Every structure is written in C-alpha cells, then in structure tokens.
Amino acid sequence: MGCEKCVDALTINRIHVQIIIRPEQEKDYLAIKRVNDLAFGQKNEGNLVEKLRKSPDYVPALSLVAEIENTIVGYILFYPVEIVAEDASFPSLALAPLAVLPDYQHKGIGKRLVKTGLMQAKQLGYPSVIVLGHPNYYPQFGFKRASEWNIRCPFEVPDASFFAIALKKDALAEVHGTVAYPKEFCEV
User: Fold this and answer.
1) Are residues 178 and 152 in contact, defined by beta-carbon separation less than 8 angstroms?
2) What is the mean pLDDT of residues 76-96?
3) Could you give the count of Cα atoms lying within 13 Å of 92 in the half-sphere of its Cβ?
4) Helix ranges, the chain (H)
5) Percent of the chain with pLDDT over 70
6) Going by CATH, does the domain composed of 6-186 fall within 3.40.630.30?
7) pLDDT tens digits, residue range 20-48?
8) Cα of 142 vs its chain's centroid, Å
9) Rounded to 5 degrees, what angle do the CA atoms 50, 55, 57 make?
10) In this structure, is the dihedral angle defined by the CA atoms of residues 39, 185, 158 and 166, taken in order, positive or negative?
11) Nearest to residue 73, comparing CAs of 35, 106, 113, 24?
12) Of the chain's two ends, which shows fewer C-beta atoms within 10 Å, N or C?
C-alpha cells in the first residue's frame, strides 16, 4: 500500500534530473542526519529523527527521502501524535522535520516530499496532519490554521504558523484540543 518509490523529473540549473521519493532505508540514516543538520544549520532536527526512529510508534513508511543521482537531498517525517481534549483523544500525524540540502532548496523538492508524504499518510489511513511551519508555505497543500478546529499547540506559537489538514472528509469536524507531542520532541 502506498508509494514504495515515486519517480519524477526535475530541472535544476537547466539540467533535467530524475528525483526519487521513497521510504528511508537503514543505509540512509547518516545521509538523513546530514540533510537535517545542514538544512537547519544545527543538530536538533537530526537528533530528533534519530530518537524518534527508536520509538515503537515510528512508522518507517512515513519517513521519506528525496534522492537525486544516488544522493539523499531531502527528507520528511510524519510522526503519530494525539490531539487531546478533556473528553477525548484524536489520532493525527505531526509533519516534522522537512529538510532539503541548501544547494537544492527552492527547486520543488520540499513540495514533492510534502505531497508524496500526505498521499502516503492518507493511504495508510491516518485522518489528519498538523505542522508548525512557515505561514506562506503550507497553505499551498491545503493546510489551514489549526485554530479553525480549536486545535492548539502545547507551547506558544503564532496562530498563523500552526496548521492542520484533514486527509479524510470531515476528519477534523469533531476534533479539538491540544497536540500531545511525544517526549522526544521536547528532548531536543
């Protein structure tokens, strides 16, 4: 089920290249850490991925790499979370991190990772995704402010930067509460 390997064409510096989006493999771990470290200019996100990978909740099919000419140039992770209210708990996914090597940024790789990841999450039966990110980036994929559903982040963030998207019709209609991130998110 889902995309084991999605192949697409991409133009970088007027050169047509083949981009492959696929689930990570163990041989990719060091390259994934490198992509995160370089994309963010720090080690937090790379360390987060390594910690999450050790959790029993980790879903390898939702840890995707972008590969060009046998080099990992991008990475995205969707990780199970809960949206918790006083009277209920709702399953969802957190999109974090999304990283692309600096030399490959602004070339459509991140967009391909997000679209493929959302498709994969939907095919695996997840109802929704939340993300803390740039207010001008995520709406292009259908994300809306999480506050529209009374979904809150557990820490102070601008309303314009905290998003949610329903992967199934009306999947967020009854959802409300605060996102409960796993402890690994707080450790980095």
Assistant:
1) yes
2) 97
3) 28
4) 29-40, 44-53, 109-123, 183-186
5) 94
6) yes
7) 999 999 999 999 999 999 999 999 999 99
8) 14
9) 125
10) positive
11) 35
12) N
3-state secondary structure of 179: strand
| pLDDT band at residue 2 using 50, 70 and 90 as cut-offs | low
Structure tokens at 10: 């991409």
Residues counted in the chain: 188
Looking up tokens 């697409």 gives 8
Tokens 């982040």, residue? Answer: 153
Helices 44-53 and 29-40, packing angle to 10 deg: 150
Amino acid letter, residue 112 = R
Long-range contacts of 50-53 (CB under 8 A, 24+ apart): 51/184, 51/187, 51/188, 52/77, 52/79, 52/182, 52/184, 53/29
Separation between Cα atoms, residue 27 and residue 186, nearest integer Å? 27
Provide the pLDDT for residue 8: 78
79 in Cβ contact with 179 (< 8 Å): no
Tell me what percent of the residues of the chain surpass a pLDDT of 90: 89
The alpha carbon dihedral of 112, 52, 79, 22 has a sign of: positive
The per-residue DSSP string of 61-84 comes to GGEEEEEETTEEEEEEEEEEEEEE
